[in-house]
Design goal:
alpha/beta, Nucleotidyltransferase, domain 5, five-stranded mixed β-sheet, four-stranded antiparallel β-sheet, 16 strands, about 45% helix, disordered C terminus
């Protein structure tokens, strides 16, 4: 698993989940040799990785010869990539008599006039393996994001992580189980990729054959010397290092390191053997850089893979159905638009009626308020009418009392209060008792309750209390 460096603040990648039981041995040389897929390998991979882990996984097919071939193109380089690819395809057909389709070729630029192209030549067993794996898990396919070339990806990684002098010649040697790959650089540019050597850790008996192959490839690539040697793959033994020093005494021989890859989750043994996976690691790092638009390497995906990964695949019968689909789409679109128009009109009408309803409710509310005011006015009018009638009674009563007091001048009132039975209690004083009797006799509505002798300031006075009935205040005078 490679973590995308664009998702963090650093450009380091992490390699996690690699167990010692899961062996990628021979991945680079076995890719092109097996036309069929071993079901046991598929079952092993399916058991090792859970289906949940693969739901969002993207696969990268990393290939080398004979699945791919290399071709050096020199001449005018067009700024249009498709035109450049067509020019390379024409050059390959002319020089090698090989027909190449545009979806199976890509290139990297070496200098202003030189391109290094890579094109597919044989059936890709790694793609077949991924498809068989998907079928084993009941899936139509697993997403294959890219097919990448192992040699160009590793060359890019080395030039990115190492700084060589412009005139230095560097050999990257990747030793596999059954074969080995030779990659030559001049400065920080790829200049030659040798054919696969049928020599690996299981069949090498002497390094003499090894070095004779290296010298032959140096002659084919016009490489005069070696200044640097980087060891990758399964053989980093001291014997190999000493043999290089014996053949190329001036060369600086070192082991390829992946210092920008986080390997802390791996065991010590796995960390020591990390360079055995140099090809897939370099391809994965290059793919991440391409997603972040930091680099453009060899990256192609044939049409048959793209078509296989489509949710809907079209054949000749699908083309026949296309006009019907278009007609149906037009019909339903027209119906939807027409219905949408009607819905919009009805929505506007509903909004208009809602507004009218709100206005009517406001008018009704105002009418209710006016009705309440009218009702309260009627109540007030009744109260006022009642008060007016009572005022007349009080006026008559007070007028009578006032006239009596004016005539007698020995009779006055100290207190007056109304009762709930519409009677008036009067308290006061008089200079003689006869005037009290006379006052009570003025109207038969007066009832003299008490008379008591109560002198005031040495004056002979009488206090009294009587009750005056307002209802009968207009009754005739009492007679003896």
């Amino acid at each position: 698993e490679f973590n995308d460096p664009m998702a963090s603040q650093s450009d380091s990648q992490s390699l996690k989940g690699m167990d010692a039981d899961f062996n990628l041995e021979g991945i680079e040389e076995g890719a092109g040799k097996l036309a069929s897929v071993d079901k046991n390998d598929v079952s092993f991979a399916a058991n090792y990785f859970g289906t949940e882990e693969l739901k969002k996984a993207e696969f990268i097919s990393v290939v080398t010869d004979p699945v791919v071939n290399h071709h050096i193109f020199t001449g005018h380089i067009n700024t249009n990539k498709q035109k450049t690819i067509n020019a390379i395809i024409g050059d390959i057909a002319k020089q090698k008599n090989i027909t190449v389709t545009p979806d199976t070729i890509d290139y990297i630029q070496i200098d202003e006039n030189t391109l290094h192209s890579v094109f597919l030549r044989e059936d890709n067993s790694s793609v077949n393996f991924i498809n068989s794996w998907a079928a084993h898990n009941g899936k139509k396919y697993y997403k294959i994001a890219s097919i990448k070339n192992s040699e160009t990806a590793l060359a890019h990684y080395v030039t990115k992580t190492n700084k060589f002098f412009d005139d230095d010649y560097t050999l990257i040697i990747n030793t596999g189980h059954e074969s080995s790959k030779l990659i030559f650089l001049k400065g920080n540019k790829l200049i030659h990729i040798g054919s696969s050597l049928e020599i690996g850790t299981h069949n090498i008996h002497t390094y003499d054959v090894y070095f004779s192959k290296i010298l032959l490839e140096m002659e084919n690539g016009n490489i005069p010397r070696l200044d640097n040697v980087l060891l990758a793959g399964e053989d980093k033994s001291e014997n190999l290092v000493l043999s290089f020093y014996g053949t190329f005494p001036e060369a600086n021989v070192t082991e390829l390191k992946f210092n920008d890859v986080d390997i802390t989750s791996l065991s010590e043994e796995q960390q020591e053997n990390l360079s055995a996976f140099a090809f897939p690691i370099a391809a994965g790092i290059e793919f991440i850089e391409e997603k972040g638009s930091k680099h453009s390497g060899i990256n192609f995906l044939p049409k048959y893979i793209v078509e296989n990964q489509k949710m809907i695949q079209f054949g000749w019968h699908s083309m026949v159905v296309l006009p019907l689909l278009f007609a149906a789409t037009f019909f339903f679109t027209f119906e939807i638009l027409d219905n949408s128009k009607q819905i919009a009109e009805q929505t506007n009408e509903i909004n208009r009626l809602k507004l009218l309803k709100a206005q009517n409710e406001l008018i009704i509310s105002e009418m209710d308020q006016l009705s309440a005011k009218i009702s309260r006015f009627d109540e007030t009018q009744a109260i006022l009418d009642s008060a007016t009638a009572g005022t007349e009674v009080w006026g008559n009563m007070l007028t009578g009392v006032s006239d009596f007091m004016e005539r007698r001048r020995n009779f006055w009132i100290s207190g007056l209060e109304t009762n709930i039975d519409r009677t008036v209690s009067i308290k006061g004083y008089a200079l003689n008792r006869n005037v009290l009797t006379e006052f009570a006799d003025v109207n038969n509505s007066s009832l003299l309750n008490t008379i008591s002798y109560e002198p005031l300031r040495d004056e002979k006075t009488y206090s009294y209390s009587l009750k005056f009935n307002l209802i009968n205040s207009g009754a005739p005078r009492n007679e003896p």
